[in-house]
Amino acid sequence: MYPFIRMFKELIINARAKPLPITGTHISHHMCWPWDIDLWRELNNGRTLTLYDLGRIPLAGRTGLSRMLIKNRWGLTMAGASVRYRKRVRTFVRIEMRSRLVGWDDRFIYVEQGMWLGGECANQIVYRSAVTDRNGIVPTARVVEALGYDDPPPVLPQWVQAWIDADAQRPWPPEA
């Protein structure tokens, strides 16, 4: 089940949080509960993706993206993700989640998130996200303009660009 109670908690906690610049980092803290684990007594990989919502949605609120989406009647969808798992997250462990927008191209916004245990990153994800309206994907130039951002876009990190390039070579539809 979706962690609605945890999401409401995050929204309440961050309702009056200091606004962030568009590329600011949102930091939040979470607990791995027994219902988050798999048969190997660690954070389930599917649940990991769900828990990342707990950082990404407040990030959108603090950067003004949520209000702008509502004002323009736009939606937000995930269009891809690449995740790395490096350390096990066990039951009752406290996680620090760091969420930030790393940049954008003509169609997509790229968000990086990581779950940290102490000073070590347990897992990290980069999401490709798209803003949509009834006609499809809204160009990011229009989105950042609606946010009041008029500086040049940040240069995407080389590793993000490499993922974009590699993903563009995958066949679609898949063969299997």
Provide an overview of this structure:
The chain has about 180 residues and is α+β, with helices and mostly antiparallel strands. The chain has a single domain, classed as Hotdog Thioesterase (Thiol Ester Dehydrase, Chain A, Roll). About 30% of the residues lie in helices and about 30% in strands. The protein has five helices and six strands; from the N terminus they run H-E-H-H-E-E-E-E-E-H-H. It has helices at about 5-15, 45-60, 65-70, 140-145, 160-170; strands at about 25-30, 75-85, 95-105, 110-115, 120-135, 135. Strands 1, 2, 3, 4, 5 and 6 form a six-stranded antiparallel β-sheet that branches. Strand 3 (about 95-105) and strand 4 form a beta hairpin. The mean pLDDT is about 95. This is Thioesterase-like superfamily protein. It comes from Aliiroseovarius sediminilitoris. InterPro entries: HotDog_dom_sf (IPR029069), THEM6_lcsJ_thioesterase (IPR051490).
Question: Brief description of this entry?
Answer:
The protein is of the alpha+beta class and 176 residues long. It is 31% helix and 31% strand.
What's the topology here?
Layout: H1 4-14, E1 25-31, H2 45-62, H3 65-72, E2 75-85, E3 94-104, E4 109-117, E5 120-133, E6 136-137, H4 140-146, H5 158-168
Antiparallel strand pairs: 1-3, 2-5, 3-4, 4-5, 5-6
Helix pairs in contact: 1-2
Organism: Aliiroseovarius sediminilitoris
Pfam families: 4HBT_2
Protein name: Thioesterase-like superfamily protein
